[in-house]
Amino acid sequence: MSLKTYIRVVPLVRNFLNCQHTFLTRTPLCQIKNTCRTSFSLFNKFDLRLYSTDTKSKVKVKHIYYGPLTPQIKAIKIFSLSSSLVGVIAQPFLYTEIARTGNVAIIAAAYTFIGFFTVVTPILLHFITKKYVTHMEYIEDTGSYIARTVNFFCLTKTIEFTPDDVTVPDIPGMFTSIHVKGIPLFLDPRVFEYPEHYARIMGFDKPLDFKLYQTPPVGDQDKKN
């Protein structure tokens, strides 16, 4: 910085400091406090409004069910899928080595064995475990439920439903407790954290409909004849 520039800047800085000093000395202290307090209150209101909006937007979800066989099912499916993937990759090499034997019976048996454990086993496991509910949550705001199952690739599948979407079969099938929107699901009533939700899902809280007479009594039929 040159001397001329320094000489020009110094008076400007001095005037600025004098103005600041004059404002602080002439302005009452209570007015400065009120200004700061107003600014702080406005910021505080804005902050509280922001947090209250976020709180209202959150959905209240309660965990009510956990399937005790969930870790075992996931482990078996992962092992089956990984072994099937290895089998698919190794099939060209295995088929080449087996074909060199020239024995038709050995070739047919080996092809059947490899194909069964590569393709049929994952499909069979999925058919058995696809109905098993691993988790279930209750949404308090809407009164609905979210059931979670495991799909073919061991990924979580969600089904949102209400008690009106549930159909309880008269004769439960294999690994089937209820039908939700036409999808069969299996639930273990012993592991519900809140049994009242199981009663609500199964419709135990609804009045019973006793249909004892599907046909009119015998006396009414004789009168009609």
UniProtKB/TrEMBL annotation:
One of its GO terms (cellular component) is mitochondrial membrane. Keywords: Membrane, Transmembrane, Transmembrane helix. GO terms for biological process: mitochondrial proton-transporting ATP synthase complex assembly. The keyword RNA-binding does not apply. The chain crosses the membrane at residues 75-94, 106-128. Belongs to the TMEM70 family. This is Transmembrane protein 70 homolog, mitochondrial. It comes from Psylliodes chrysocephalus.
